[in-house]
Amino acid sequence: MTVTVEIVETPVAAHMDSGAAQNAKIAQSPLAIRGLTVTYGEKPAVFSVDMTVEPGQMTAIIGPNGAGKSTLLKAALGIVPPVSGRVTVFGRSLAEQRARIAYVPQRASVDWDFPTRVIDVVLMGLYRELGLLGRVKRVHRVKALDCLARVGMADFASRQIGQLSGGQQQRVFLARALAQGADLYLLDEPFAGVDAATEKAIIAVLKSLREAGKTVVVVHHDLATVTEYFDNVFLINTRSIAEGPVAQAFTEETLQAAYGGRLATSQIDQLAKV
Ligand code: ADP
Ligand code: MG
């Protein structure tokens, strides 16, 4: 008796060592995270998360409250220490590449009770150019003012940051990130509690960064604007849920997986219509 075995040609990529393919992807990624676990107490806030950010694109990090989104960014920046895992930035260690990352924290976490002028907040973004104890020169002021102009806040340069509205403060923090001249921008809920005009101004700046070849990663809470604003999504609920282009990774199934019972089917139906 003869048995015929069908031999299927496998594509070249399949012959490639999957470890080598992984390493190539990590080397090209502005931010690659592998097996990241972070705990504050006993329960992990982030568990065994893998994430590979695509260069020159805008990626939304999405997940319910307490899903570990802020913790993921903080661990990526070395602000909170991971229990385990590896973070590479443009294929190198975080320590080597830190200057290439700009971070805009979640606004609620910043308390501006002490008197600081708007221009001084933006000048903080230039600390690498200025050096410790460096004197602020005219060229630095011009640069800081230019960054404020890009977010529509040039007229507020001499104001106290604590006197601005939440949306205005958020624009100033973005101006500080711009002053840094980074290649990778991490923003934690930049649109939370801001007015429509500020949201428009911020998204326009983020899109201009992308046009200039920069990589933008945003923790985003508004599911209705994901398709309009972003190229890719990363869904998280303590663990990685889904990752990829919006059309493939931002679906009813992945949203249900990320939000569980917390997202009503009617909300998903509405999303399908946008
Ligand atoms: P998200 O940004 O997605 O809302 P977080 O990363 O802020 O989530 O929080 C993830 C989990 O870790 C939550 O359960 C939160 O209560 C907890 N957590 C966050 N920060 C701390 C902290 N500094 N100390 C203790 N627990 C924390
Ligand atoms: Mg958060």
From TrEMBL:
InterPro entries with a match to the protein in the record: AAA+_ATPase, ABC_transporter-like_ATP-bd, ABC_transporter-like_CS, Metal_Ion_Import_ABC, P-loop_NTPase
Keywords associated with the record: ATP-binding, Ion transport, Nucleotide-binding, Transport, Zinc, Zinc transport
GO MF annotations in UniProt: ATP binding
ABC transporter domain ranges (all copies): 31-263
PROSITE patterns registered for this protein in UniProt: ABC_TRANSPORTER_1 (PS00211), ABC_TRANSPORTER_2 (PS50893)
A Pfam match: ABC_tran
Lineage: superkingdom: Bacteria
The keyword Magnesium appears for this protein: no
UniProt similarity note: Belongs to the ABC transporter superfamily.
PANTHER family: IRON TRANSPORT SYSTEM ATP-BINDING PROTEIN HI_0361-RELATED, METAL TRANSPORT SYSTEM ATP-BINDING PROTEIN TM_0124-RELATED
Protein name (record): Metal ABC transporter ATP-binding protein
Source organism: Pseudophaeobacter arcticus
